[in-house]
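[Automated response] Your request has been received and processed.

Submitted sequence:
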Amino acid sequence: MTGCACVSAASSSLSSIGRSRIRQRGPAAGRGALVGTSPASGFAFGRGESMGASVRISVEGQARSRPKREGRALKVVCIDYPRPELENTVNFLEAAQLSASFRSAARPAKPLKVVIAGAGLAGLSTAKYLADAGHQPLLLEARDVLGGKVAAWKDADGDWYETGLHIFFGAYPNVQNLFGELGIEDRLQWKEHSMIFAMPNKPGEFSRFDFPEVLPAPFNGILAILRNNEMLTWPEKIKFAIGLLPAMLGGQAYVEAQDSFTVQEWMRKQGVPDRVTKEVFIAMSKALNFINPDELSMQVILIALNRFLQEKHGSKMAFLDGNPPERLCMPIVDHIRSLGGEVRLNSRIRRIELNADGTVKSLILNDGDVIGGDAFVFATPVDILKLLLPESWKEIPYFKKLEKLVGVPVINIHIWFDRKLNNTYDHLLFSRSPLLSVYADMSVTCKEYYSPNQSMLELVFAPAEEWISRSDEEIIDATMKELSKLFPDEIAADQSKAKILKYHVVKTPRSVYKTVPDCEPCRPLQKSPIQGFYLAGDYTKQKYLASMEGAILSGKLCAQAIVKDYEPLIAQIPKQYAEASIS
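Generated structure:
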């Protein structure tokens, strides 16, 4: 599950932050009266101030203390669960071994200067592990905020709004290792081991899949499915289980071979009733890639089920305890800088300058700066990379295959209400709405956003292709109609019940790559055929597809490729200097 995404390193044309309608607080406004509009402003890091060549972010007040509740008791109670035991899983140990390989690598006689475009999780990961191996990364970010797909901004009231609703799963071994390496494991707020779905035919009610802690995988997941009799009947469960048998027995080879089928096609081929797709996999498809089962590759679902069923805590979810730029990205930046690396914001790339032999000479920034290095990494979204590819590279098969990889549009919405909503949980909720994917009351699930008196719902609006060009007002009106079904006693479309205090709409026309069938052969390895040029990003070849885990793993694999190429890269340096002196 990815959350919404925003572009990060080279062009701002692929993302936009919607305007915010803000209701004036205080007696002058009058109840329910919209008194004006203002653009979403006040970027993170001191209202969007330029950081130039250094990152200066205040992290004062890392988590607000929770105010004492007053008045009547609320239904919703914040209860964080202990961190699950993840260290004994095969995937966690493999991720830990890969991390350790950078720290234990022989120190280079001459560290490589590696220029990385894009300070999302892929770029930050690449820089972090290169620094661990003794090299000198220079990370360039086009915008004035860290995070890429996990970017967030602070508005004029001091409230944060994010690019997406981000969930950290137990089945994210490289993410979990990264938190441990940085010493910030306590910043994940683990929730009850459940998956909670709204019931469209019973407005205001939910159906749960509860994973018993006493059972190992896969029995905890099997029992969670068997005990839920509200969404699937027993005959449907049996047919679904029989349909899954080939995937369970065929292993990874079988899973990868299913990339040629959509979820809907595969279910029908396996004799699984359409109602199973409707009841469960519409919600899962939208949560995993923001599209419906008639478009999504079945490989995505099988990989998710494989991780969730093989690991006891694989499907257990956690929320970050605050905004991602400060609570996750800044510790990575601090680590990079402590080892001699550099991070620059407001460094947008205009073009890639080539040597006579077609290798990269330098990156030219919009402000005219020329950035040279010993190796270059593009850790931007694939759509940005395609815009900046030199003409002479475009017919190379490695790059030409990227044409099939296209970002999916998505919209992330934050709505602040004038009261505390009761019909929710301290958890991620699957809306099963035709317009909405997942949502959460962030005033309950997240420490920094906690409020005892008002709810702030964060919602993923997907699929968004037909809505991305519509006005924020139209999107909010449609969202309120859907919320009136999820909160029938508390929210009405006309705001005759709960009133909107303000909202933010974040549109991303090109988010994570759209995992439609037959994309897998088009995903590139991190090492390109151009000597000294590498790629990182969740669209590159790694086993976790379009996710935060995939982005971080891609960065590690990219750093690993560069470390392995040290000798040929260092041998190129005298040649580059000679060419530079001649020109």
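Summary generated for your ticket: The two ends are 49 Å apart (CA to CA). Residues 1-15, 18-75 have pLDDT under 50 and may be disordered.
If you did not submit this request, please reply to this message.
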